[in-house]
Design brief:
Strand content: 15-25%
Distance between the termini: 47 Å
Radius of gyration: 22 Å
Bound molecules: 5'-O-[hydroxy(phenylacetyl)phosphoryl]adenosine
Strand order of the largest sheet: 4-3-5-6-7-8-9-14-13
Shape: globular
Helix content: 25-40%
Structural class: alpha/beta
């Protein structure tokens, strides 16, 4: 793999500023942002008033913990534009969640918001080792989802050659990467695996592809998966995180030179970690639910938004801003199987260690005789495996899951292609327990 470490001189001053400078900036921005939300969004005014707290009460960053949380339901209750803090005439763009699991949530951006988004995206792309003139194959979905257009905006502004391919038509993805000489690919890690399969299908050695870095996010993925993809493509695989409610991709980003968790662009997005049960703050270093407060957003300021993502905050390394550890999973995706908490990432980690199995998987939950049952559907790595080898591989995974995760799972190792593929976020859990 090539060394893609960016030149220190190319970084924004704030990326390498002292903690004192960062915190001073955060405090003044936070005071302004809370007032903006209170004065312009009836929901925030009502919530702050009920809690007996006013933006003027914020005298230190720690005071933020006295303010109320915001949850997804608040956004749904204010559908479509109730959480906007500017007149609609100032809203330049709208994104929304798919709404497959209920009322969609709608996010608005002013021209300044889009500019800020582009700036944090440029920082993120730079952290991945991308430079002006490089070709970026952007396979995140374009549309209401923030992935495609979010990455696109920053990439174009920084002078990359963007290929806005979006997800799907996997054969063509391979052809365009090869023909256009993409140095970077931005894509969900699960779809990257489909592209990898397609390389092999077409008999093209992925190691010889022009790709040098994969910018993987929008869903949880493990370091074991990183090793697999880095080895297969001979490229770096870097984690990018974000969520629409906060802005989209580019809230935090791993640095190619350290790959040790994601630096949060804290000058725009203020992180806290709470105990998801009690709502109490937990100190840096402890695992809990990630909460964000926007510091500079105009159209859609967000105060103490509960992401449901589980991680911990760590001190800065390659940049001065704090890091978040790779996401373990979402609290909504946590499976409680006969009292044991299981995250799909734990299954992924074990799967990656069984060479005879491909990295695709889906977990199915069922209830039989009032007992929950977990089935893990996987695929053999090669089509010429004997039936007994296939069974042995499945048993090996089941025993690894038992000993490391502590639950009994039935593992079914099917043919290549038997696990459903996604072109964006993979569906890891199908819950048929109802
Ligand atoms: O997924 C934004 C995005 C696009 C991020 C492209 C990165 C790349 P939403 O659709 O609103 O936005 O989904 C946000 O996806 O709360 C996490 O649960 C999950 N997620 C996003 N990035 C990561 C990541 C985009 N790197 C939700 N690791 C978040 C783990 C992630 N989970």
């Amino acid at each position: 793999m090539k060394d893609l470490t960016p030149d220190k001189a190319s970084l924004d001053a704030i990326e390498v500023a002292s903690r004192d400078e960062i915190e001073a900036l955060q405090l003044s921005r936070m005071q302004h942002s809370l007032s903006h939300a209170y004065n312009n969004v009836p929901h925030y005014k009502a919530q702050f008033d009920t809690q007996g707290i006013h933006p003027d009460d914020l005298n230190s960053l720690a005071d933020l913990s006295r303010f109320p949380f915001t949850v997804k339901q608040d956004l749904r209750d204010n559908y479509p534009f109730g959480m906007f803090a500017v007149p609609k005439s100032q809203v330049n763009r709208i994104h929304a969640s798919s709404g497959t699991t209920g009322q969609p949530t709608v996010i608005g951006y002013t021209a300044n918001d889009l500019k800020m988004w582009s700036e944090v995206m440029q920082r993120s792309l730079r952290a991945a080792g991308m430079q002006r003139g490089d070709v970026l194959h952007n396979a995140y979905g374009y549309g209401l989802f923030t992935g495609g257009l979010g990455v696109h905006g920053g990439a174009e502004e920084m002078g990359l050659t963007v290929v806005p391919v979006s997800g799907g038509m996997t054969q063509r993805q391979v052809r365009l990467i090869e023909d256009f000489g993409a140095k970077g690919i931005s894509v969900t890690p699960s779809y990257a695996l489909s592209i990898l399969d397609e390389y092999r299908e077409q008999g093209i050695d992925p190691k010889k592809s022009p790709l040098q870095v994969g910018i993987f996010g929008a869903e949880p993925w493990t370091n074991a998966m990183r090793d697999e993809v880095e080895e297969a493509f001979d490229m770096h695989a870097i984690d990018i995180y974000g969520l629409s409610e906060v802005i989209g991709p580019g809230v935090s980003m791993e640095c190619v030179e350290s790959k040790d968790g994601l630096h949060i662009w804290e000058d725009h997005f203020y992180p806290e970690i709470i105990n998801p049960e009690t709502g109490e703050l937990v100190p840096d270093g402890e695992l809990g639910e990630l909460v964000f407060t926007s510091l500079t957003k105009e159209a859609f300021p967000i105060v103490r938004y509960r992401t449901r993502d589980l991680t911990r905050l760590l001190p800065g390394t390659a940049r001065s801003m704090r890091r978040m550890e790779k996401i373990t999973g979402r609290s909504d995706d946590m499976i409680i199987l006969r009292g044991v908490n299981v995250f799909p990432t734990q299954i992924e980690e074990q799967l990656m260690s069984v060479e005879q199995l491909a990295p695709h998987f889906q977990i199915e939950l069922q209830r039989a005789n009032r007992l929950d049952k977990m089935t893990v559907k996987v695929e053999v790595a090669s089509s010429d495996m004997s039936e007994s080898d296939q069974k042995a591989a499945a048993e090996m995974l089941a025993s690894k899951i038992k000993s490391s995760v502590g639950v009994t799972a039935e593992v079914i190792a099917g043919e290549i292609g038997s696990v459903p593929r996604s072109q964006g976020k993979a569906v890891r859990v199908v819950d048929n327990r109802a």
